[in-house]
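User: Second chain of the day. Same drill as before.
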Amino acid sequence: MSYYRTYRAANVNNKGAYYSSLLNLSVEIERLLKAFIIMDQMLNNNLSVPTTVQLKNYGHKIIPLYDECVKLAINNNLQLPGRVSLTNIDQQLLKLLTDFGQAKKVSNEIDDISITIIVGMDKQVLSTEEALALLGLHNQAVKYAVLHLIEMLSPIRDLISELSHKVYGLGVTELPFPQMQEFLEWMWDDRQYVLRKKKWP
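Assistant: Same format as last time:
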């Protein structure tokens, strides 16, 4: 996923990488969660797909899509933590991704970074000492941000596998939707591995 590399490249001198990576990440997660909803609808309704109106009702908001996938996981005897069970950081991450799913939110954020002085992520002017120190602090912090993303997405890996395999029980001669269980097989919730790894698919 190229947005992991873009996110790791983001820093106080390259804020644009934050916006592009978070926007791309929110779009991809939205599409992935909607794909689960489509698969479940087909599995339980004689392969009929949801209407465009039904999908549009979810909008581009990741939080309600995540909540719906929690329900799907429960119905399939899988563990996907509800939002109330997530850490505060992970809840804020879901909210951030939902915000970046709205194009107006991104444009508003970009408008205030076209300046010639260096400012921090809190939009406060940095001293030379702070600017030099911040890059090192960022390198330490970003791997933990990626760790939280992996921890949040790993249970979804099990859901996509379960829904993909379930179609074989319908006795169809031709699979009605792509088998996507390999999409997230590279993602493993191994803290030391994630903190050590610098390059992602």
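The chain has eight helices and no strands.

User: Great, on to the next one.
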